[in-house]
Give the backbone structure.
Amino acid sequence: MPFAQIYMLEGRSKEQKRAVIEKVTQALVDAIDAPQQNVRVWIHEMPKENWGIAGSTAESLGR
């Protein structure tokens, strides 16, 4: 059973996250011939204050 984990900053809409799940699922189906019903996708949303970029938080950088 393929299991994909996606890490991204918080703030995406439900529709955007749904699109990520659909496209990652299809990519795994296409790339490794995995049955679609066996693919799992887990989105980890990180608070912007918990994500560091070059010594600063993503929040303080306006990301």
